[in-house]
Specification:
four-stranded antiparallel beta sheet, globular, Heat Shock Protein 90, alpha+beta
Length: 117
């Protein structure tokens, strides 16, 4: 894995969890209530990109998607003990030094990121 080559192998488990949570959120937004993929107004499927950046001390994970903003943006919430989901961003927050999201003007995309150290 790239992390070992960057001397950040110790972050592999946390990296796996954060990537899983961020990509799962994008995947859920990319499917309708019936479980079928959402197509955009041009009949295209959503696209998801994963990018890892490092200076060999910090690792920045980025998950980009081109889903319409009205399908939702990442918001951390406190799940009730009986909720079956809703803890993903709480995990991301606990495992990362910082996280957030932004819209990428000119790319018709949203980027959700987390920094691990």
């Amino acid at each position: 894995m790239a992390l070992a080559g960057w001397g950040l192998g110790r972050l592999a488990d946390d990296c796996d969890v954060v990537i899983s949570e961020l990509t799962t959120n994008a995947f859920r937004a990319a499917t309708g209530p019936d479980g079928q993929p959402r197509y955009d107004m041009h009949g295209r499927l959503p696209v998801l990109w994963l990018r890892l950046l490092s200076d060999r001390t910090w690792l920045r994970l980025e998950v980009w998607d081109n889903l319409a903003p009205e399908l939702g943006v990442p918001i951390e919430r406190r799940a009730a003990a009986t909720d079956e989901s809703g803890r993903g961003l709480e995990l991301v927050s606990a495992l990362s030094q910082d996280w957030g999201w932004d819209v990428l003007p000119g790319n018709d995309a949203k980027r959700v990121w987390a920094v691990l150290a």
